[in-house]
Backbone:
């Protein structure tokens, strides 16, 4: 959580006025009684209303100074989590905070449902909810995506090259054929000329 906290505060510092305003509004919304601090009850009520299932002890971990309430800075961290941690564990249903495992087959083939496991569910051997056993961690997945993008780029380039070559070949062939055709037309014109000459000559003798 300490790492997430640092990143969240850095993001907040760099964020637009609009985002800052948004976080202030969120704080007011969660702080139902308006006493400028969020109690566990208020926090749970908000998560229930928004159907956000956070890992157990999330409130305690967010509450850095341990006073039993979340202040504005601690809500900034919460805001960052709900904005960026949108993957939930198929084992326990909680939002995944850190490293996680995902089924690579479902990730690449299913568009709507992905099968993920948080670290502790993965360790305890829970199922990701599909019939596959190809779980990879999120870093490996990212690397896989990079490779896929690279492969696709190479394939696209190869495809473009082939199309280019076919077009060149077609243009050349067409040119050859049209030259043949022009030659044939020239021959035909010559033949007609010869015929006309022959007719003229024939007329002279008639
Ligand atoms: Zn889990
Ligand atoms: Zn799967």
Residues:
């Amino acid at each position: 959580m300490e790492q997430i906290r640092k990143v969240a505060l850095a993001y907040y510092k760099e964020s637009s006025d609009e985002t800052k305003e948004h976080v202030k509004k969120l704080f007011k919304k969660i702080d139902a009684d308006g006493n400028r601090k969020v109690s566990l009850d208020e926090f749970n009520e908000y998560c229930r209303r928004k159907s956000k299932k956070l890992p157990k002890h999330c409130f305690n971990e967010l509450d850095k100074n341990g006073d039993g309430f979340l202040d504005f800075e601690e809500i900034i961290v919460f805001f960052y989590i709900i904005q960026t941690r949108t993957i939930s564990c198929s084992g326990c249903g909680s939002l995944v905070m850190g490293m996680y495992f995902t089924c690579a087959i479902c990730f690449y083939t299913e568009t709507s449902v992905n099968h993920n496991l948080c670290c502790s569910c993965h360790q305890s051997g829970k199922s990701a909810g599909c019939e596959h056993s190809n779980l990879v961690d999120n870093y490996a997945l990212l690397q896989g995506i990079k490779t896929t993008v690279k492969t696709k780029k190479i394939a696209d380039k190869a495809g473009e090259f082939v199309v280019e070559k076919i077009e060149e070949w077609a243009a050349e062939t067409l040119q050859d054929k049209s030259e043949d055709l022009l030659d044939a037309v020239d021959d035909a014109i010559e033949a007609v000329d010869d015929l006309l000459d022959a007719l003229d000559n024939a007329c002279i003798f008639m």
